[in-house]
Amino acid sequence: MIALKDKSSGTILGSVTIDDQLVEFHEGETIYQIAERSRRNIPTLCYDDRLEAFGACRVCVVEVEGIRNPVASCTTLASDGMVIRTKTDTIEKYRKTLLEMVASENRDLDINELAGYASQELGTLLDLYQARNGRFKGKQSGHSNQDDKNPFILRDYDNCISCYRCVRVCAEQEGDHAINVMNRGFETQITTEFGNDLRDSQCTFCGQCVQTCPTGALTDKKAIRAKDLDGEVHKTRSVCPYCGVGCAVDILTKGERVVGIQPAMDGPANEGALCIKGQYAFDFVHHPDRLTKPLIRQPDGSFREAEWEEALQAAADGFKKVRQKHGRHSVYGIASGRAPHEAAYTMQKFMRAGFGTNYIDNCSRS
Amino acid sequence: MTDQDIFDRWKGEDAPLLPILQAFHDRDDHISEDAIRSISTSLKIPVAELFATVTFYHHFSRELPGKSAPRVCTGNVCSMNGGKELLDSLKQEGATAMPCAGRCDDMIPVIRGDQVYVGKTAAQLINRTSPLPAPNPGKAEECVFRHIREEGRATIDGYRKSGGYEALENTIKSSSDELINTITDSKLAGRGGAGFPTGLKWKAVRDAPGFPKSIVCNADEGEPGCFKDRAIMDHDPYALIEGMILAAYATGASRGFIYLRYEYPETEAILQKAIDESRDAGLLGKKILGLEDFNFNLQIRRGAGAYICGEEGSLLNSLEGKHPFPRNKPPFPVTHGFENLPTVVNNVETLASVANIVRKGSAWYRSLGINEHAGTKVISLSGDIRHPGNYEVPFGFPLQELLHEWGGGANNGRNIQAVTMAGLSGGFLAGNDLDVTLDEACIRSKGSFLGAGGIIVFDDSRDMVSVAHEAMQFFAHESCGKCFPCRIGTQRLSERLNGNNGQLSLENWQEEIDDIAAVMKATSACGLGMAAPHITDSLQRYFPEKIEAHLNRSL
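YS: structure for the whole thing
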């Protein structure tokens, strides 16, 4: 039996049998969650573990003894004594058919990985189930809106499968409710209010819809610019420098070039969320105007390049001079919102002990 | 009327979104962007979400001419009788097509504003009362239609003349247990098609924790070829209301809603009058019949064109002003219904049977069925049949007898080629399988189901592939779009019945149809997607040679 490691986080309701393995479970756990925990890979398309289970794609269906039809494992709560099978021939056949049906409604099935964090999900499943075989030909769903004039998000709904992950992440995670749908059935179209461009909606361009899209229908416009650049995409885990929250990011590079940013789904501070700056504002890295050395202002107003040692000394001399001339309260320290706690602490200590003033603040307060 | 007047009218009321949308639709003849923004602010619903919900319902117009422009029925039965031609002739008035509007016994319905006109051509269109069910041709004893043909039945005095509200007056002298036991003993079960035992449902709601509880009447009769609930509500509205009050007494519910389909505007007025008169007579509202703790507030909420809202989860979401997707089950409405509180959702016919069952006893009701079957079922019979209409049959009644003795056989001396079951949801029965009896066990043994009791007849001149195509188009039009097997499956099946099938060989055609059907039946999230493949299954079972001809034609 797979016993629960953490027995404290909820009432243990009992155990279920998944593919002949006995697994203990907590109150409120779904079949899918228990299956994941016991390392069964149940395929999904509409599932994002940060969001409320939706039950749309039905790719995650499993057989439960005593229930006539397969159930969606993502929305079905486990109950004691359930006997579950996640991979019977019948279930696998349903999944393959479903994937073939999904493939039939999209224009492109090969999506560049720069499109977004989850962009390979559909393609990977299609390969796993050998479902790229052109069955079920017919009308394609969704109408592309590639003309949406925003610099960040490419909206190519010809590749949309109406899984609602973008709609749900916008509402549940970001609280913006900028996107939803219009119409119903096969005519379902993900869109903003009144079908407007994103700029005219409540969108804050956080990019979370892009990163959860499993088909590349929503694509990171900035990252995809580098699709023809030579080289493999390399991911480096880092922390976003824009504020003190400390969102974990994966910096995407090709060779020496930063080509995009993806949120780290397992980042403890952000759990896959980013804001417009963390997500899209990375162009400064390779910008020709970017300062690479300290500059010291000359008496004639112009700047000259200097080394850090000299620059810091110049700054220190300047501060000292002001303090001598105008007193200790003539200096005022403002900590950057980008600085973490420790740096903010150091700043106030520096101001209080060094200059002898209590005039301190933080930019986030303004 | 200003926006604020509308909001003030509905302020503090339960389930306010639909009536507010209807009020704007009525005032402006459409629902404008400004209206959506204004309602969004007032009800604190995000604009994009409200926009999504408004666009979900096909009867809400978003441009002019809107509500006042004619909507012409092009359902299966009407399209066999000139519905599409009528639509074409009204095109210059901005006419649009609508799916079956529940008037298959009195064609062709055209809705203009809040009036339903009927007629085969534009010149013949008149506004008239919907047909009363004909006297029972087989002299079988009835329950639901027992008093419906009596003079003045749709007035409170007329209703009382033949014992109306006696059931309620007697019931409140004893406990809710007794009422629930009577209903349980009668074996009354959901007549909307699901067949869940009514007594059991009421008991579950009574015993479920949480207040206030609700009684929701599902009057969203959207199944093509079904028009029985319309007949009950138009001609015997008090029977429904008394049934709902009894349900409230049984369960302790204090809120009631009749979720009425958009296509029955005049029915809304009839029901509203009956509700008002019942309230004035102390039968609704606070302290019903002087009982201290017996409060039941009954309101009508009108839908806006969405078959899926006949599915109880969608219906509840629609009432609550949410996007009308079906809900994931469990939990069920008996514990988590309207506003996540215990809720009875019952069909019109079920509720309208209750008062007569209480008056005449459970044994009487059970005895109405044939052999081991208990009770009756109203069947809406339409299509190529001499006497279309609503017939209340005993469960276990032979289909052939209904078709030939009661319905008078096929029109114009032709032969009956096939009939549908459960409106369209049960697919077709044909050949020897027409020798069934009308009860779930028998019909299910033929791979179909009785459902809400709509039977559409097709004579031997009809092209069954094209009939099946129209049926599948209906399901594709009405699929909510949430679950993949139904959203894509109904579309692909419809395309394959239309010849737009990528020029498949018969073998590949069958393989594709069967694979899609299997996945839809097994994995769809609600009954729509599970039932739609009955059409293709039964088409293949009874008419394989017609499919071959269809494929040869479309190659």
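YS: worth flagging: Residues 166 and 227 of chain B are 28 Å apart (CA to CA).
IM: good catch. Also Chain B touches chain A at residues 33, 36, 46-49, 51-52, 55-56, 306, 308, 328, 330, 476-485, 487-492, 495, 500-502, 512, 515-516, 518-519, 521-525, 530 (CB under 8 Å).
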